[in-house]
Amino acid sequence: MSELAEPVVQQASRLPRDAKYYDVKREIEEFLYDEANLLDDRHFKEWVDTLADDLEYFMPMEYNVKAGEHARRELTTREKQMSWFNEGKWTLTKRAEQILTGVHWAEEPLSRVSRLVSNVQLMAMQTNDDGDLEVDVSSRFLTYQNRCEYEQYFFVGDRKDRIRRTADGWKLARREIRIHQNVLLAKNLSIFF
User: Fold this and answer.
1) pLDDT tens across 165-184, in order?
2) Which class for 183: exposed (0-12), middle (13-18), buried (19 or more C-beta within 10 A)?
């Protein structure tokens, strides 16, 4: 009888759960909840204002792979393979402007969307070269989209964000989105995550 080898799981070191952690976490959670409300209420111009100019917005595709190959092959990589999104602030701004024209075929009529954000944890805090605090944040989401009369979609996944405190408030500097579907069940990805 042979024994299966235990998978090696490396856990990231946790930030100390001190007063600073919880103060920053509370601000980050409010930023994420405000962001969800802006998007749900279709305040796309105001949402774009919460994005850093150097934003990286990435959603890899996810594949079914053999056991033991998940770390290497489950997700597509940025700049090397196809992805659902690989955008910056300029592209997201243009997408938002297009939706607001009222002639965007995938968003006419506009979708009704409700976003839930949970499991917010701070993974790292550091000061960048400009002296701004940057916080790496992990969260989970559940997004419901209803289009026209009968189309309903649920998007479930997690996000890895970098959120920067600037003189103008918190700004989203990086977002990696993982939707836990290897086959996209929705007809399009016209919403923001």
Assistant:
1) 999 999 999 999 999 887 77
2) exposed
